[in-house]
TrEMBL record:
Top-level taxonomic group: Bacteria
Gene name of the record: gumD
Ranges that cross the membrane: 7-28, 48-67, 88-106, 112-134, 286-306
Major localization listed first in the record, in broad terms: membrane
Record Pfam families: Bac_transf, CoA_binding_3
Upper classification of the organism: Bacteria, Pseudomonadati, Bacteroidota, Bacteroidia, Bacteroidales
Subcellular location: Membrane
UniProt membrane topology term: Multi-pass membrane protein
The keyword Hydrolase is annotated on this UniProt entry: no
Enzyme Commission number(s) from the entry: 2.7.8.31
GO cellular component: membrane
Keyword terms of this UniProt record: Membrane, Transferase, Transmembrane, Transmembrane helix
Residue span(s) of domain Bacterial sugar transferase: 284-466
Identification of the protein by name: UDP-glucose:undecaprenyl-phosphate glucose-1-phosphate transferase
Gene Ontology MF terms: undecaprenyl-phosphate glucose phosphotransferase activity
Length: 471
């Protein structure tokens, strides 16, 4: 099923619902609150009506987008749709009430209550009915098997066999198309091999398999004796852009930390990899793009000044670019002002230190003030980076780090940043030992991600720039 087309349907019907609701609510206010005679109401000549019509639908659309309402539309249930629509329409109605209605002239305070109830009711009904229709249609198509999700099983023992048998015997499709399994460790015979093909010998093959077979969902099905490997399995799956579910046991249910879902009476737990609430994640991305574009415009004179200084100080290009590893392990090209001599790494990748003679005199100043990083605003706009996030590294150094600190992979769950807690608290690392030492600050950031923390890090970064105190 075309996900983009489904999202477009939601967006168009949400816009239409907001426009209709505003038109009816505006008419209600004119007739029942302001007591205008019906024959004197001419919306076609009312500038206020058209101003609201051109702004309010996009207010609702922004509210739905920033709260993550258009995510995972193919897996939405009708109950989820009801709850999320009710909650967001209530929040949006309160906002509009305080902005548009509270300062209106009224004859009785009852008008406030009736206006709010009418606004909420109209918006909810005209929004929820199309959504319910689309969601119900999507669920029916999935149950009839008109579309499915490529699903991979992690595990190959009796518990996984039981899962396949139970799901295969269901009268209606769960939407899962099982394409194969990956065992935790090699053995002579796998019970699950009778039902599904083996796609890899161990978890080491998981990245290649997910890309090759376009896997949408992964179900972890481990026997009791394999539970000690669960943390390793989940850590591996964190780097994959797939939905992860797990067959629970009693301990899993009691300890929580997962969202319960159900595939037609088969209890499964959804392992959530979200580090921030959807609304914060979307606002973070929005602010990244807006601030980066503004910074690129405002800093044009600084860009020119630095470029002239670099060219006057040493031979070579103004900008320096090379490959770094980004979110989910995806390589990208990073851009910086050149702070070293040309061919500084002709003998292979090397980390710099405070006595490094490869750094130019201008480059030393740029590094202390972090101004060598400002071309990365372009990377932020492209979506490769964020304003705040762990420092992106080269694969050459990542391979060395993970040998001693496998938890480095947690950093690849988010976009790397121009600045980070590690950069602010520690600075540039001169060797792999220092990179591992700096890693603890980035792990702290990952576990406490929020817009508030991002703003604090940006303030400390600005302080570092003006004090030229960067390491």
């Amino acid at each position: 099923m075309n996900k983009k087309l489904l999202t477009l349907k939601y967006v168009l019907f949400d816009l239409l619902a907001a426009a209709i609701s505003w038109g009816l609510f505006y008419s209600y206010r004119k007739i029942y609150v302001e007591h205008f005679p019906i024959e004197k109401i001419h919306l076609g000549n009312d500038d206020t009506f058209f101003l609201g019509l051109s702004i309010i639908p996009f207010f609702w659309l922004a509210l739905y987008y920033f709260t993550g309402e258009y995510r995972n539309l193919l897996r939405k249930s009708r109950l989820q749709e009801l709850a999320s629509t009710f909650k967001l329409v209530l929040v949006g109605s309160v906002i509009l009430f305080f902005i548009l209605i509270l300062d209106d002239y009224i004859s009785s305070y009852k008008n406030y209550y009736s206006s709010f109830f009418t606004l909420f009711s109209l918006q909810f009904v005209f929004t929820y009915i199309p959504r319910l229709t689309i969601t119900s249609s999507t669920i029916r198509k999935m149950r009839r098997g008109e579309f499915s999700f490529n699903t991979l099983i992690i595990g190959a023992r009796e518990k996984a066999v039981g899962l396949i048998k139970e799901m295969s015997n269901k009268p209606k499709s769960s939407g899962n198309k099982f394409i194969g399994f990956v065992p935790l460790e090699p053995q002579e015979q796998y019970p699950l091999e009778e039902y599904l093909p083996k796609l890899g010998d161990s978890l080491e093959d998981i990245n290649t398999i997910v890309k090759e077979y376009k896997v949408d969902e992964v179900i972890i099905s481990l026997d009791y004796q394999e539970k000690n490997k669960l943390e390793k399995v989940i850590s591996r799956l964190e780097l994959l852009h797939t939905r992860t579910l797990m067959q629970p046991d009693l301990y899993d249910i009691l300890t929580g930390h997962v969202q319960t879902t159900s595939l037609y009476s088969i209890p499964l737990l959804e392992v959530t990899h979200e580090l921030m609430p959807p609304w914060q994640e979307n606002v973070k991305r929005f602010l990244d793009v807006v601030f980066s574009i503004i910074a690129m415009i405002i800093l044009i004179p600084l860009y020119l000044g630095i470029s002239i200084a670099i060219k006057a100080n040493s031979k070579g290009p103004v900008f320096y670019s090379h490959t770094r590893i980004g979110r989910f392990g995806k390589p990208f090209t990073i851009y910086k002002f050149r702070s070293m001599v040309v061919d500084a790494e002709k003998n292979g990748p090397q980390l710099s230190n405070h006595t490094d003679n490869r750094i130019t005199s201008v480059g030393r100043f740029l590094r202390k003030t972090r101004l060598d990083e400002i071309p990365q605003f372009y990377n932020v706009v492209l979506g490769n980076m964020s304003l705040v996030g762990p420092r992106p590294e080269r694969q050459f150094f990542i391979d060395q780090i993970v040998e001693r600190a496998p938890h480095y992979y947690h950093l690849l769950r988010v976009r790397p940043g121009i600045t980070s807690l590690g950069q602010v608290k520690y600075g540039y690392a001169e060797n792999v030992d220092q990179m591992i030492e700096r890693l603890r600050y980035d792990i702290i950031y990952i576990e406490n991600m929020s817009l508030y923390v991002d703003f604090k890090i940006m303030i400390y970064t600005i302080k570092t720039i003006f004090e030229a105190s960067g390491k």
